[in-house]
Hints:
It is a single chain. The protein is of the alpha/beta class. The chain is built from 4 helices and 16 strands. The chain has helices spanning 2-33, 35-48, 51-60, 65-78; strands at 82-83, 88-89, 94-95, 101-102, 107-108, 113-114, 117-119, 124-125, 130-131, 157-159, 164-165, 170-171, 180-181, 186-187, 195-198, 203-207. It has 2 domains: 1-80, no CATH class; 83-208, Hexapeptide repeat proteins (UDP N-Acetylglucosamine Acyltransferase, domain 1), CATH 2.160.10.10. The model has no long low-confidence stretch (mean pLDDT 92). The protein starts with a helix and ends with a strand.
Amino acid sequence: MSAAITMAPAATAQGAAWRDLVKSAARGAAALSVLVHVLVYRAAMRLFGPRAFAWASQRASRWTGLVGIYRRRALLRLLGAEIAQDSTIELGTIFSKSTIVIGAGAYIGAYCCLGDVRIGEKAMLADGVCIPSGAHQHGTARLDIPMADQAGCYETVHIGRDCWIGSRAVVMADVGDGAIVAAGAVVVQRVEAATVVAGVPARPVSRR
C-alpha cells in the first residue's frame, strides 16, 4: 500500500503533463485551422476597416462544440484580441471591438454580445449577457438630426476578477472585483467590489 501511495503524486503529475501536452497540440491545430480566416480578415480590413473584426467574430461564433471553442479563441487571438489561452468563449458570442481583453480562466457563456470590454481573471458571464461600449454610443442631444447620425461616445467597460454576471444582464458601467450582477439586471452605475446588485436599474441588495 505504501508503494501505491508513494506513486500516486507521480502518476498525478504525469497525467497533468499529458493533459497540458494534449491542450498545447489542440491549440496548435486550432491555430492552423483558422489561418484562411485570418487571410480573409486582413483583406476585409483593407476594404472595410475596423468593422471587419466584428464580421470575423460573427463567423467564428457559429463554430460548435469543444473544437469550436478552441478555434474561436485561436482566431480572435490571431486577429489581435488579448484573450487568455485557458479562457472559454461559448457558441454564438460575438465581439464588436478588437480591443477586448479576457483574463485567465474567464468564462463567457453562449450568445453574449460584447463591445470594448476588459474581463478579469476567473470572471463568469452567463448566457445572453450584453456589455456594450458604455451607455452613450449614440448621440441624443439634437432633435433635428437622427440619433444614428449624431456622434456618440464609446467607453471601455471593466469587469473585475472573480465576478459573476447573470444571464441576460446588460452591463454599461464598471463592475468591481468579486461582485455579482443578478440575471436580467441593467447596470448603469459602477458596482463596487464584492457587492451583489439586482434590478432595473441595478441596485445593491447585499454584500458577499
